[in-house]
Specification:
Strand content: under 5%
Number of strands: 0
Number of domains: 1
Helix content: 40-55%
Shape: globular
Mean pLDDT: 83
Order of helices and strands: HHHHH
Low-confidence stretches: none
Length: 128
C-alpha cells in the first residue's frame, strides 16, 4: 500500500503501485479524479482524528486503491461521508483540515467538490 503524504511537496504526484519503474511517466496510475478525492478523504480522517484505521474503514481504502481508475459508487462516498458526520464537533472534513492540520503543518490543498456532487445527486448532505 503506498504511503499517503498530506504535506506540501515539490513533486505532487498521484499514488503509484510502489515499483521503482513507477517514477517513469508511463507507469504512473491514471486515477479517476473523484476516486482520488475519496482516497484523500479516507486517508485524512484518521489523521484529523488521530486514530488508526480498522475493519470496514480499511476496506474502503483498499477499494480506492484497487479501483483507482473508475468513478466511485455513490454508496462508497456515502459511507465515508457518514464517518465524517460522526465528528464530535460536527465539522466537515475541510473544517477539520483547516482547524486541526493546517494550523501547525504545511498541508496541501484538498478539494472534495466531485464527492459533494455525487452526494447531491442522491439528495444527501455532504460533510466533505
Amino acid at each position: 500500500m503506498p504511503l499517503f503524504n498530506p504535506l506540501v511537496s515539490h513533486s505532487e504526484t498521484l499514488p503509484t503501485d510502489g515499483n521503482k519503474k513507477s517514477e517513469d511517466k508511463q507507469y504512473i496510475k491514471k486515477w479517476n479524479p473523484a476516486m482520488y478525492q475519496l482516497y484523500n478523504a479516507d486517508c485524512l480522517i484518521p489523521i484529523c482524528w488521530k486514530q488508526i484505521i480498522r475493519g470496514g474503514r480499511l476496506s474502503t481504502k483498499v477499494n480506492c486503491l484497487k479501483y483507482y481508475y473508475s468513478e466511485p459508487y455513490w454508496f462508497r462516498v456515502k459511507t465515508v461521508n457518514n464517518v465524517i458526520q460522526q465528528d464530535f464537533k460536527n465539522r466537515t472534513l475541510t473544517e477539520m483540515i483547516n482547524e486541526e492540520l493546517r494550523t501547525t503543518n504545511n498541508i496541501r490543498e484538498f478539494k472534495f467538490d466531485l464527492l459533494t456532487q455525487i452526494l447531491q445527486k442522491e439528495g444527501i448532505k455532504s460533510f466533505f
